[in-house]
Amino acid sequence: MGNLLEIIKGRKSVRTFDGRQISEEHREKLLEYIKGITNPFGIPVEFLLRDAKECGLSSPVLSGEQLYVLGKVEKKPYADVAFGYAFEKLVLYAWSLGIGTVLIGGTMKREVFEEAAGVREGEMMPCVSPLGYPAAKKSLKETMMRKGISADSRKPFKELFFENEWNRPINPDRDMAEIFEMVQWAPSAVNKQPWRIIVIDGVYHFFEKKDKGYVNENTGDLQKIDVGIALCHFVLGLEEKGKTPEVILNNPGIAVPDDVEYVASVRI
Ligand SMILES: Cc1cc2nc3c(=O)[nH]c(=O)nc-3n(C[C@H](O)[C@H](O)[C@H](O)COP(=O)(O)O)c2cc1C
């Protein structure tokens, strides 16, 4: 894919496309890549490519997009985390090909997309994304939107990465600081960055700092999708450095605020 930190820091959500169709070569590469996408939770996430015009798909925040990818998953515990993890792999791969994406979980007519994805009982389609080539200039709407949610900045390390207990900042070594940067720059719904990581005895425990209004029946918990994305950056970063991280469920049972929930851990 190329240098991961560069891809992660270079990636931005794209909402203004140049109107070109994805090339045949790129479509084949995407389809091939999709076949190999796995996640640590063993929950299959299905990706479907759908033509915007044919299926009547659009979003009020987008322009110029011709193609969408719709993601479906069976409703069950960890479906949202697995979904975020798997979708992010696709997002990063697309970016490495010069293809722009943006996860859309809210700003769309959900029924139209669900019909195009053929969502069945017991399944959900939490988010979709356009796939296309970024336009040379962003629409005014996109520029305003990015400003409104400070999309070009992220929380500092001291608010995200802790050692042994809640809210005790950690001083990472150089290698780990690079991995933390990859996690820091993960995209999230409304750029809330709800992931918090507490390191205890060399195990990295991922928590979700919950805000109100991100959970519903059609999407699961959008902020768990965010944590899945952050986890994906963490694992891919470690793998790039030649490590073999293992995602485990191992709640350390430490005291955390009421709005904080344990999600998963990584042993290196
Ligand atoms: C789970 C999820 C849902 C999102 N839903 C929307 C959405 O409905 N509409 C939208 O315009 N952007 C949506 N986004 C994109 C975020 O606003 C964006 O990732 C964030 O502001 C950071 O900007 P960046 O991706 O350019 O780094 C979503 C992102 C995630 C991860």
Describe the structure.
This protein has 268 residues and is of the alpha+beta class. It folds into two domains: 4-141, 3-Layer(aba) Sandwich (NADH Oxidase); 157-267, NADH Oxidase. Helix content is 34%, strand content 19%. The chain is built from nine helices and eleven strands. The strands form three sheets. Strands 5-6-7-11-10 form a five-stranded mixed beta sheet. A hairpin with a 3-residue loop joins β8 (215-216) and β9 (220-221). α8 (174-184) runs antiparallel to α9 (222-240). The longest helix has 19 residues, at 222-240. It is globular and about 55 Å long. The model has no long low-confidence stretch (mean pLDDT 97). The site of flavin mononucleotide has 21 residues, from α9.
